[in-house]
Design goal:
Helix 7 runs antiparallel to helix 8, helix 7 runs parallel beside helix 9 and helix 9 packs across helix 11. The chain has 3 domains: about 130 residues, Acyl-CoA dehydrogenase/oxidase, N-terminal domain (Butyryl-Coa Dehydrogenase, subunit A, domain 1); about 110 residues, Butyryl-CoA Dehydrogenase, subunit A, domain 2 (Beta Barrel), CATH 2.40.110.10; about 140 residues, Butyryl-CoA Dehydrogenase, subunit A, domain 3 (Up-down Bundle). With about 400 residues, the chain is of the alpha+beta class. It has a 4-stranded antiparallel sheet, with no helix packed on it. The protein has a 3-stranded mixed sheet with strand order 1-4-5, with helices on one face. It has a two-stranded antiparallel ribbon with strand order 8-9. It is built from 11 helices and 9 strands. Bound molecules: flavin-adenine dinucleotide.
Length: about 400
């Protein structure tokens, strides 16, 4: 088997050592970058300005290349799920908004890669340079977990393009993006089932309007309304009817990385919690001397490491084309649910200070919540896992 060969031949060992060195080098760059972000002290209260600043900083540091293939100016031959996980873990540890700015460049632009779109060559190098900020527009008021209920329509025109009509909401980067990967219903199959297609739509397309939405943590997000928006044939992402394949293929690449972002938030919460427990004195000794609190911390650290193993296993499998939806679902489910528990416990360890505006754990509490919802809720991940349990043969 090719996989075994890699481990037993000298060439394989060298390749692994090279890869490991590259990952250590990336990690060092991420640590240095996060220190620079900390020093810059970006004000996240203006969510749009913060997002633009973060994209600029990420581009200048060469980190946006991680979400674009080398053929279009990116870092790796194809997007490395492990590298994106490593980046998200570090960036989310620093700031949830910074992590969002990073990953949306990939989530919003990768449909152009997956669909082999002719416009990819024009758009993707600009994504790497931070000149094009991206969004991914799938969710609608009537279509969340049940994507196939989407109502946005693409009416074909004589020149091969379409006219888009409909509404998307909860679209990250809605208020700052230069362009969106958009999914819409386009006609029906011969059996009468709806067909879905994908398009790249510039944010300044006539008829496209944006309304900001406000969520718990700093996050540029909003509603997109398409009022007879014309999209030319060369802005199609794949042939008519392939839209959901592109959307799900995209989520497949990025889903384990949501777990990695959750790991980063939990890393930070654990660090804040241990430092606080060691320094806060009550009843004549540090809180860290209380066995009940030590045991809780030990349990959370163990769950956190278990989740980390699942995330990087799913990412590594994905990188060698051996990933499964079950693996990705387990990784996301485990990491996001664990992160929620870790952050909640950290707030509890801090007592009243845990809910004080301006405390890092208070911000983490707001930042972590949405991860159990977006890119497939925890319940949808359980549906995927449970479905696989009844499949033959069971593969996770
Ligand atoms: C901060 C944030 C950023 C987002 N960014 C984007 C983005 O950039 N692009 C985009 O397209 N979307 C985005 N979303 C939307 C997100 O993907 C959806 O909110 C998510 O898929 C859930 O859909 P919904 O909100 O309609 O909930 P619903 O589908 O209405 O679900 C409501 C509840 O019912 C549960 N449920 C639904 N079906 C089942 C079932 N069959 N069995 C058991 N339980 C079920 C769900 O798990 C959930 O708990 C974002 C959301 C948030 C909060």
């Amino acid at each position: 088997m090719a996989c075994t060969d890699r481990y037993v031949t000298q060439r394989g060992i060298d390749a692994l050592a090279d890869e490991r060195d590259a990952f250590f080098a990336l990690e060092r760059r991420l640590v240095a970058f996060c220190e620079a972000v900390e020093a810059a002290g970006v004000d996240e209260r203006d969510e749009d300005e913060a997002a633009r600043t973060y994209v600029r900083m990420l581009a200048q540091a060469g980190l946006l290349g991680l979400v674009v293939p080398a053929a279009f100016g990116g870092t790796h031959e194809r997007v490395s799920c492990r590298a994106v996980c490593l980046a998200r873990q570090h960036l989310a540890r620093q700031s949830g908004a910074l992590d969002t700015a990073f990953v949306m460049q990939g989530l919003g632009s990768h449909p152009l890669v997956l669909s082999d779109a002719p416009i990819a060559a024009a758009i993707l190098p600009k994504v790497v340079r931070g000149e094009v900020v991206c969004g991914f527009a799938l969710t609608e008021p009537e279509a969340g977990s049940d994507v196939a209920r989407m109502q946005t329509r693409a009416v074909p025109t004589d020149d091969g393009g379409v006219v888009l009509e409909g509404t998307k909401w909860f679209i990250s980067n809605a208020t700052v993006a230069h362009g969106f990967s958009v999914f819409a219903r386009e006609g029906e199959s011969p059996e009468g089932k709806p067909r879905f297609s994908a398009f790249w739509v510039p944010a300044d397309a006539p008829g496209l309007s944006v309304e900001p939405m406000k969520v718990l943590a700093p996050h540029p997000i909003g509603r997109l309304t398409f009022d007879r928006v014309r999209v030319s044939a060369d802005h199609r992402l794949g042939p008519p009817g392939r839209g959901l394949a592109v959307a799900f293929g995209n989520l497949d690449v990025f889903r384990p990385t949501v777990g990695a972002a959750a790991l980063g938030l939990a890393d930070r919460a654990l660090a804040e919690a241990t430092a606080h427990l060691a320094s806060r004195v009550q009843f004549g000794r540090p809180l860290s001397a209380q066995q009940g609190l030590r045991f809780r911390l030990a349990e959370l650290a163990t769950d956190h490491l278990a989740a980390q193993l699942l995330v990087y296993r799913a990412a590594a499998a994905r990188d060698r084309d051996a990933g499964t939806p079950t693996m990705s679902a387990m990784a996301k489910l485990s990491a996001t649910e664990t992160a929620q528990a870790v952050v909640d416990a950290a707030v509890q360890f801090f007592g009243g200070r845990g809910v004080l505006a301006g405390e890092r754990v208070e911000a983490l509490y707001r930042e972590v919540r949405a991860l159990r919802i977006y890119e497939g809720t925890s319940e949808i991940q359980k549906l995927i896992i449970a479905r696989a349990l009844f499949d033959e043969p069971y593969r996770c």
